[in-house]
Amino acid sequence: MSARNSSDPILPGSTIGVLGGGQLGRMFAMAARRMGYRVHTLAPEHDTPTGQISDVEIVAPYDDLDAVRRFAQDVDVVTFEFENVSTAAATAAEAFAFVRPTGQALHVAQHRFREKTFLVKNQIPVAPFAPVRSDEELQKAVTSVGMPAVLKTAAFGYDGKGQATIKDETAANAAWDSMKRQDAVLEKFVNLDREVSVIGARGVRGDFSSFAPIENAHANHILDVSVCPAGLPEKLAKEAIDVTRHVMEALDYIGLLCIEFFVTRDGRLLVNELAPRPHNSGHLTFDACRTSQFEQQLRAICGLPLGSTEQLQPAAMANLLGDLWQGGEPNWAAALAFPSVKLHLYGKSEARPGRKMGHLTALAATRAEATELVVRARDALTRR
Ligand SMILES: Nc1ncnc2c1ncn2[C@@H]1O[C@H](COP(=O)(O)OP(=O)(O)O)[C@@H](O)[C@H]1O
Ligand SMILES: [Mg+2]
Questions:
Q1: CA distance 352 to 325
Q2: What does the alpha-carbon distance between residue 58 and residue 47 come to, in Å, rounded to a whole number?
Q3: pLDDT tens-digit profile of 84-102?
Q4: How far away, in angstroms, is 270 Cα from ligand 1 center?
Q5: 56-59 vs 38-43, strand pairing mode
Q6: How confident is the model at residue 161 (pLDDT cuts 50, 70, 90)?
Q7: Which of 381, 298, 283 is nearest to 332 (CA)?
Q8: Cα 270 from Cα 227, distance rounded (Å)
Q9: How many CA atoms lie within 13 A of 31 on its CB side?
Q10: What is the pTM of this model?
Q11: Which ligand gives the minimal distance to the CA of 151?
């Protein structure tokens, strides 16, 4: 670690290290390079979405600790766009550079059982849950949590991968077998009114800022459309932001954190999960807010003042999954014919079904109009 004080700002011209190679790192790198920073990235693949925008792309597995050490030696601060980096890798990097958020925060957020246990310890409401690490625990969990429920692998799940909705103990057994009996969590199925997310940022002196809650609609467990403002009563919006601040303080967090919330039909707010990085739902901040979530991540990890999160206009974001390529190249001109729709593509060459290839953002006078517009623009992509 350099001799500098941890609260000294890391100024433009410095080098940021991004662990991970996906679109979150790509948009972060765009924000960082715009402000005159250099960006190095490390990921197991070559020509990644992040690597394409970085000054230096290192191709190495995250558990190649020598590679992680060499990577950290060349940068001033390390951050993440991918949360499943091991604690060992984060610790290896910490010997040479600031790591923000810390490996400790990552350790909590990357494992559903640890995460939920941490939340309960901090008096934050979550859906009823129980750990599943043996047949006995599975049986006990089915009784204590109640049916229907969702069985989720404790680690490495994303976009609904590694989860199954179950109705009884037989189904629970079969689902756990198909997860190869990895450590899992059984969680009560929540009757959802809606889902929202809050993206918070916390700086090196404990300064906090958040974006307004964003409302998220999923299709096949993958985020489909996000819209801001969310249709949330003022009291719940405030509560969601208070919870976000509380969680970040409890983790002594530096950087950007997104909390996914469930809003139950009886009007309660439950935390679903934490993402210790920018979040898909926050992509609309790129076009709709004074400061994007990516610039805010940069400011937070560099010890700079946090930017204004003020939203300029209601906005909606629609994901573009690989499925859209099934009938050939999407009709980009048709979507771009909507003058207030913005196209973002992540530079991925292979369009697999369910793979996040890009997104569209629409700005409009109301949230309903923005949503309608972004969905119409996405529909236009498959018009040939
Ligand atoms: N307990 C639950 N009750 C109802 N819906 C759920 C539950 N858990 C997950 N879901 C649905 O599946 C989506 C993905 O689940 P999540 O736990 O956030 O995993 P991932 O890591 O894949 O994002 C959620 O956003 C929600 O739409
Ligand atoms: Mg999720």
A1: 8
A2: 10
A3: 899 999 999 999 999 999 9
A4: 12
A5: parallel
A6: confident
A7: 381
A8: 19
A9: 25
A10: 0.97
A11: 1
Alpha helices in 251-303 (DSSP H): 285-288, 293-301
φ/ψ region of 47 (left if φ > 0, alpha if ψ in -120 to 50, else beta) reads left
β-strand pairing of 77-80 with 192-202: unpaired
Q: 261 is written with which tokens?
A: 């919330």
Helix (H, G, I), strand (E, B) or coil at 15: strand
Residue with tokens 């989860």: 163
Ligand 1 binding pocket (C-beta < 6 A) is 127, 150, 152, 157-160, 187, 189-190, 192, 195, 218, 221, 260, 272-273
Q: What are the φ and ψ backbone dihedral angles of 319, each rounded to 5 degrees?
A: -70, 145
Nearest CA to ligand 1 atom 24: 221
What is the three-class DSSP state of 43? strand
Please list the helix, strand and coil fractions of the chain in percent, rounded to the nearest 5, in that order. Answer: 35, 30, 40
Cα separation, 13 vs 219, whole angstroms: 41
Give the residue among 367, 373, 365, 321 at the shortest CA–CA distance from 342.
373
Cα-based distances in Å from 383 to 133, 152, 257, 353:
48, 37, 37, 18
Distance (Å) from CA 81 to ligand 2 centroid: 15
DSSP 87-104: HHHHHHHHTTSEESS-HH
Which distant-in-sequence residues (6+ apart) come within 8 Å of 184 by Cβ? 131, 132, 133, 151, 152, 153, 154, 176
Does 115 have pLDDT greater than 60?
Answer: yes
Q: Are 111 and 154 in contact (CB under 8 A)?
A: yes
Q: What mean pLDDT is predicted for residues 354-379?
A: 98
State how far the Cα of 47 lies from the Cα of 52, in Å rounded to an integer.
6
Nearest Cα neighbor of 364 from 293, 288, 290 is 288
Ligand 2 centroid distance, CA of 277 (Å): 13
Residue 148 preceded by cis peptide, ω within 30:
yes
